[in-house]
Amino acid sequence: MTQAYDNRPIGVFDSGLGGLTVLKDIMQRLPAENTLYFGDSGRMPYGSKSVETVTRFSLQNMRFLLDQDVKMIVIACNTASSRAYATIRNNSPVPVIEVIEPGSREAVRQSENGRIGVIGTQGTIDSQVYIKTIEKLSDKPVEIFQQACPLFVSLAEEGWWDHPVTRDVARIYLEPLLSRHIDALVLGCTHYPLLSSVIKSIAGPSVRLIHSGAAVAAVIEQTLKRTESLNNGQKPAVHAYFTSDSVRRFQTLSSLFLDQPITDIQHVDIEQYSCDALQSD
Amino acid sequence: MTQAYDNRPIGVFDSGLGGLTVLKDIMQRLPAENTLYFGDSGRMPYGSKSVETVTRFSLQNMRFLLDQDVKMIVIACNTASSRAYATIRNNSPVPVIEVIEPGSREAVRQSENGRIGVIGTQGTIDSQVYIKTIEKLSDKPVEIFQQACPLFVSLAEEGWWDHPVTRDVARIYLEPLLSRHIDALVLGCTHYPLLSSVIKSIAGPSVRLIHSGAAVAAVIEQTLKRTESLNNGQKPAVHAYFTSDSVRRFQTLSSLFLDQPITDIQHVDIEQYSCDALQSD
């Protein structure tokens, strides 16, 4: 039996730089895959915006990626995953992967005392999506404590990843969770791993930081294998980057984060893409 | 000769809460005027977004205000004033007032040593609009020093107006300007007066803080008098508030800032308003 391949890129989108934390794990686990990243920094943050707005933005991001002929769409953004996943999945001709279930599964696996903290944008926290998903996945009782951290995305997009100010902000946000003796902390926003050294130093060694990147990369690999859509690996992988904001700023910060010079970055006028849903959730 | 009046409201828009600092001065100077405020918190910040995006947002805000039958549009946002004023003015059937020229004029008037600092969003700073305007208005040589303060808008929208973190951030942003011995500091973003107690304490008594609110209110009064459009003052003034984000958060913070309970706040789905320019700049 012949194995089929699909050399088209994996499409990844996020409200800005945060999805790079997921992309990094995808590139590490699946080095033969071409990738195409869209960071919607021009419309960030998503976390404070309404369900309708986030859904509209996500549909436009999907259209852009489909126009680039991707073989899969990864919603590397918790806010968009919690608010627009079903709509995107119902409208996409290619498989769609979200980030909340893989991260929740990881939290259930890693927590020993069943006391799990979740931090995220206001939108993700208000949606209670992590509470519902973790409770569904856990076969023992769990207690979940949530905290919105609205300034984290702005600090991450500003590049203040290991900065005294970020440390002070993290202390303020995390204190209420740490006082509840959590032993696992879900970074429920893909921007937060950019701040992980600060978060780790505040949370201390007894708290495991859960970020979904590695788990998402594993789900992607399973899906590509199941659908016989892996890259055949005969050419070096190509990674392309697009942003709705300043290319210069995106370049500086993405190169720093991915620890390699990123040069192929293009600006996208994302508003020109249609946001008509073929079918709503 | 009979004096004509116009009792329709003055329409004011900003990317969020910042324009309230201008509204407060308008209400103080023109207590008989009805006002209608739109804060676009759902799409803030404007400062990092492209000229095209800010222009599109501003046109939608204009359409919304015109739909409410306002007699004047006040762009109470420096980023939108610097990027979209000409387009708005060319498309509006009612007078349009912006905030940059009044603030610049005030800076020229108040600086004694001709060394003026300007802080603003990345977009306002990159546009160099304050440098051009202040140089045009000054009849003696001036030296202008600029600094972008990207986190200030997020801190203001978060309500951290007099907070240790805001103090640290302000120290980092202001230090390079203070070392140049400025004696006037233009708050080139209408959000910044919300942080003025922190900014004042860092800048010290030898630096005058310039914010454009009072000067803008004076320009509005002149324009209404010239066009015979003042309110006849026969009924108590009505003040209405609209936001594209959470009404609850807007209510808490706006009441705090205006120092009176604000109850008449409505949510607006701003994306439904057309952004077609009748005529571009």
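Chain A has a mean pLDDT of 93.
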